[in-house]
User: Fold histidine kinase from Acetobacterium wieringae.
Amino acid sequence: MIKKISNQFLSSYLFVFLLTTMVTTLAVVLLSFASGLIEGRLVKERYPARAIIKEDYTQIDASAVVKNGGGVQVVNKDYQVVYSQGLDTIGKSQLSAEEFTAFLMESSDKPYHYDIVYQPQGEYWLIVTFPTSIRLSFSVVHNPAAVPDDMAMASKVIAAISLIYLTILALLASGYSRFMAAQITEPLHQLSEGTRLLRAGDYSARVDLKLKNEFANLQETFNDMAARIEQEMTLRKKSENDRRRLILDISHDLKNPLASIQGYTELCMKKKDLSEQERREYLQAIYQNSHRANLLLADLFELSQMDSPQFLLKPVETEVCEYLRQICGALIPPLEQAGFQYEFDIPEKNILVRLDPPRFSRIFQNLTDNAVRYNRPGTVISVSLREENTDVVICFADDGCGIPNHLVEDIFKPFVRVDDARNSKTGGSGLGLAIAKKIARAHQGDLTLDIKYNNGSAFMIRIPKI
Ligand code: ADP
Assistant:
């Protein structure tokens, strides 16, 4: 059974109240005990009127009382102050009967302690006065000889006051416990509502409690968690879409060459009067299409290999300028053969990087293949190297037809091409840039496209220096 937080608060408040009452009672007992203890040790208790009184008041020795800051007065039966030493709070030498009665009645309210004794033989009152340093007086008085009616009335009043007190207390405790419980249950309710929405698939659910206590931390954690789940879900959706698109693209790209191969093979098998010229043409077409399909599958295999956890580079410390010079040297024959021009700008520096040379050179191979494949003869290919903070940046550029702005990011995705018709003729797999980017990233670097370069395309290969 669920226990309501407001009820738990109520019982704890009542418990605290009970405890407070018990502690207060204990405090009262201690106070009355302490009052007795203190009272007994005050100066006034050391010099009571009884101790110094004499039948003949002129014999009284008031010196000790006066020395301790007190005073001694003697009032005779005609209310005349006939003797006065030290502190005098009467202030008159002759009192009326009313004045003396008032003095006696009000003595307990004044900040003085009066000890008054009547001497029957000398017929006088001896008054010993001390200024009050502290007055502790607490006691509940009950006299069994009191009038029964008074007792009954007093009991009723006490019972009524107790009842009113307890009712007010119960009402306050109940209201306050509800209020305090709401401080907890309301944020909890909002958080559980947010969790419910998340569970129902609404990943945009967030909680705004407008609080600055511990719940604010919980809210922050919840919102962070929701944001992460939302991000994760978007990524998952995106990668699911990418996967679907990839499968579609692969099947589309494989369908054409395989259909051609099938068509030409059928022709070879069924056509009876096949001329030598036709046979060569058909076989040529079969070869080209199977080559294309093979290329696509090989690139696809390489790309998926790089995604597998078993894919490991074998990086070695390499002097990158020297490495790039060798790469450029190897580029010269195919570029010249294709009628392309070239410019290389590689500094004479000793810059070290860690790379897997055969894998890394695949980047240049793919970029060169593309540059030659998609641009006209006469295009200038330039390769340069510069240092940028902790990185080395190699720029592989051409001043050819370029790649449109909107494809700057997407061109590195598998099967993304500028012009599908053009590409089916030129025969690429559509995976060259995707593979090259993955290789660069596996080296803790990156491959990006800078379209602003000379109207053509400029690919930036970034790799960290050692
Ligand atoms: P593909 O096998 O189609 O060449 P890539 O991933 O290597 O696949 O290249 C993707 C597309 O980018 C190419 O189809 C082409 O349209 C475009 N492209 C790549 N490099 C260049 C370049 N140097 N000049 C113009 N277009 C290019």
User: Anything to note?
Assistant: The two ends are 65 Å apart (CA to CA).
